[in-house]
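Notebook entry, structure prediction.
Reason for the run: the old model in the group folder had no record of what sequence produced it. Starting over properly, with the input documented here first.
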Amino acid sequence: MEIQWYPGHMAKAKRNIREDLKLIDLVIEIVDARCPDSSRNPDIDSFAKDKLRILLLNKADLADPKGTKDFSCYFQGRDIYTLEIDARNKSSLKGLSPLIERAAKPLIDKNLARGIKTPVIRAMVLGVPNVGKSTFINTYVGRSMAKTGNKPGVTRGNQWIKVGKRLELLDTPGITWPKFEREIVGLNLALIGSINDEIINTDELVFYLIKYLVRYYPDALPMRYGESLKGLTEAIEVYDAIGVRRGCVKKGGGVDYTRTGRLILDDFRAGRLGRITLEHPREQA
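New structure, fully documented this time:
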């Protein structure tokens, strides 16, 4: 199943971001720890390549800890400042302020040499839709400043937010890019809710997820839906068994795949299937 999603408002948002980058010292990019590679927008690398950068692996509480650690090492090996976070948990953000100071040290030193003792750091928060940008900002600031929602497209315009005396954050709309070069990118973004569910074939998406879980996390589905699923290796058998067990059955007796698929997808997104990472650093795949 090939998935592409780049609505018109994103093209406009991208143009605005390019323009606002002229005012920015630091880019804070947020990715989903369950698929850090797929949820990195390659456009950010191109139009923010001359900016100081920090990468936050959000929703680390939902991801496989080993997978998150592998990705942290992978990015740090490329001289990218990284931090594993749960944007809803303020304690997970404790390390961010020192990290910003480290990342922005070249700028701070330059300003100090010019006699500016308390330079303001202007940071832009970027990421694909529904990755937790606004939740991160609200938690970090300590009050509700940015709109949040459990679906893509909640943030539509840019918004400046002051954090103390030294930092200003610019919240931006989530943007994808015009064409996903690898099929797995679209699948992973759909699974984490970064693509509008209305354009997705849920049955096919969940079928892919089941196959992935059977291969890499064989205990995840039996632990959630019952031990009777153990030993089942065919995705369609697993799909049927979950549908029957959860009562997602049509009047004629067949499994209602739409209801079953939505149930499984919601359970995955909420972390009820356990801590799962959907990909590995490409060099380890």
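Summary: The longest helix spans residues 202-216.
The old model has been moved to the deprecated folder.
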